[in-house]
Structure formats: C-alpha cells, structure tokens
C-alpha cells in the first residue's frame, strides 16, 4: 500500500486531498482429515459421517481510498475495491462517508457503502454427506396436519399416510453438500449518527447511531422445514425434488429418508436499528470513575427465505423460520469502572438480553435476562497484569427449551446466548516483553 497527498485542495478547504492505493493477494486453502470413526459415522450422536474437506482459492484485490477536506468542520471520505477470485467471480464495492462538526458540542456523521461476502471454503467444498436437522413433526404422520394428496407430493405412499413418521428426538436427516459455483453475497448499508459532548456535563460523550443493512443473494440452503412445507402446500418440483422418503416406511428420520440441502444463493435479509452509546468520566474520593454502555434496539430484522416471498419479521422472536438464535429487540452491555490509586482497576458489568417470543408450536418464550459480572485488574508495573473476576455473579440459571435441539442449541439451552454454566471464577496472569 502507498499513501500520500495530492498537490491540490478544494477551494476553501483546510488541506489537500489524501489518497491511499493498495493491492492485496490472499491464498486460502484447507485440508481437513477426520479420523476413521468420524469418516464412517461411528461417533455417537454425530448423525452421519464427518467427511474430509479439501480445496482452495485465491483472490487479488485492488483498492483506493480518498480523504477529502471541504471546510474546517466538514470532510468526506470515499473508497473503492475490486476483487478478482479464482472461483470465476469478481466484485466491486465502494463507500462514501461524511463528517460535520456542527459545533463544539455536536457532530454528525453518515455513510453509505456496499459490501460482499465470498463463500467460505466449507460452503464451497463441503463433501456430500448426511447430518441432522430439528423439525417439530412430519405433517404426514400421526398428526395428519397435511392432507393425503399433499403428502403424495412428497413421495409418501398412500398406505403410509397417518402412520408413525415422527422422530422421537425431533431430528431428521438432511443431505448436505457444498457448491463451488455459488456467488458472493451482496450487501448495502446506510448509517447515520450524532455525537454529543455537551460542555455543561464535563466528561460525557453520547452517541446515537442508526443503521440499515440489506443483504441479497444470501449464501445458504433452503431450510428443511420450508422445503417440506412448500412441497406439501404447492407440489412444485423445486421443493418436492428435495424430499426423499424412506422407500419402505416413508420416514425422513431413518437412514434412507432425508431432505436435500445444497448450498445456493437465495435469501435476503434486512436489519434496521439504533445503537445508543455513552461514556462518562468523573472524579470521586476513591478515584476516577468511568461509566460506559451500549444499547441496541432492533427496529426490524426481516428475512426473505426464497425469492419473491413475503418478508418474515424476526426482531423479538426466535424459532421456526427465524432460526435458533434469539433476536431481542433490546439488548445492552454496561460497565462502571473505578480507577484506584493503587494500580487497581475494579469494574462491575451488566449484560441485558431482551425478551423473545417463540415462533415454534411449543411457544416457549424467553423472558428478559440480566447478568452481572465483577472484574479486577492489577498492574504493579507496565510489564505485569493480573486479572481476576466472577462472571455471572448472581449465578443466574440459563433459560431452557425442549426445542433447543442441535447447534446452536446444546443441553436444552443456547450457550452462545445465555450463560449455560452459571457463575464462574477466573484469574489471568499476563506478562509483556
């Protein structure tokens, strides 16, 4: 990368236009070799064989970025990036931003940019193999929530309609595979924000940021539940060709029955919300105190599973088409830190997760959850740092659901969302050289 300044400036600008030009080459590859029990599917609970993964690609990227002063209190920035992938894909992305210092107390900022995500090595080269997916029921089984003729669309023989097709674990087979021709995802985002540093409250910084992110040609698979339900409802071959019932008993959970799930480009997602950030420093008799926090409010989180379908709202929900990652409308992280005169820093943190409603048939809603964390850091000099603390100070139990199922579910809860292990104590020793 090279950077510098042009020998000119805009009329009235306080300085010249700055520029950065660069080239980047990446070569990515993988060679995953599982052991024999994994390859043969003999590990308990695996749901199928873990297959080798091998492949790679390289990319050449060229970029330019500009910093454009306009006035003493106004500036713009712009950028462009071209990427050429060995997978026969090329992409163009760009950005445009502005910053305006309205007064000593208030600043405004905004940006518009495009982005891409190329398929991962796993999405490109995953070998065809079986896995498990969570489904609440087979509508053609004992519940008979789908008609006989609809179930015939899915390949079910007439005499098997209404028989016991339900998996006792609510887990069904899917046949997964990568796709070396899948195209990169595309995204556009708009952000706008206000930064306030009011002179009448010394040490306070308030930030309000709005974001709107839209993703097109999302890389993924037609969800198993969607494929099955669409086949039953419409009989369209695009969906029915994905359903492969067991040739003898018609099930989808005994080996020989499965739903195909090949990586492709199909979904659209839109996330819109607001971040509220604060930082406040003040003095106390015990030492300086800093209060920090960020709250996020989701205005919308829309998912379009298939092209032409209506948008599905996921803000404030979990389960069904929204997947098993709860998306609360409100969430936040907050921390109060005391800087003592003894090279000791003590922090009390709060993590807040808003409530989410279950879209599944069991309607297991999650209440709002709050966690408290206590941390202390001591540094006798610049080379040694001791950190200790207690996470989940009040030993709050995770909320549970019988629908947690497989990943990201584990142990009837969601460890990436709730604190699954309760209170925990930690100590770290760090040395810098």
Tell me the total number of β-strands: 22
Rounded to the nearest angstrom, the radius of gyration is 27 Å
Count of alpha and pi helical runs:
5
Strand and helix order: EEHEEEEHEHEEEHHEEEEEEEEEEEE
Helix content: under 10%
Strand count, sense and barrel status of the largest sheet are: 16 strands, antiparallel
Shape by Cα distribution: globular
On the 0-100 scale, what is the average pLDDT? 93
Beta percentage is: over 45%
Report the uncertain regions.
none
Distance between the termini: 29 Å
**Given the helix and strand composition, which structural class is it?**
mainly beta
Secondary structure layout:
Elements: E1 2-5, E2 18-32, H1 36-39, E3 53-71, E4 74-85, E5 90-100, E6 106-117, H2 121-125, E7 129-134, H3 148-153, E8 171-177, E9 185-196, E10 204-220, H4 224-234, H5 237-240, E11 243-244, E12 258-262, E13 264-284, E14 287-304, E15 312-313, E16 317-318, E17 330-339, E18 344-353, E19 357-358, E20 369-381, E21 384-391, E22 424-431
Parallel strand pairs: 8-12, 16-19
Antiparallel strand pairs: 1-2, 2-3, 3-4, 4-5, 5-6, 6-9, 7-8, 9-10, 10-13, 11-12, 13-14, 14-15, 14-17, 17-18, 18-20, 20-21, 21-22
Characterization of the model:
With 433 residues, the protein is mainly beta. It has a domain at 326-433. The chain is built from 5 helices and 22 strands. The chain has helices spanning 36-39, 121-125, 148-153, 224-234, 237-240, and strands at residues 2-5, 18-32, 53-71, 74-85, 90-100, 106-117, 129-134, 171-177, 185-196, 204-220, 243-244, 258-262, 264-284, 287-304, 312-313, 317-318, 330-339, 344-353, 357-358, 369-381, 384-391, 424-431. The strands form 3 sheets. The chain has a 16-stranded antiparallel sheet that branches. Strands 7-8-12-11 form a 4-stranded mixed sheet. The mean pLDDT is 93.
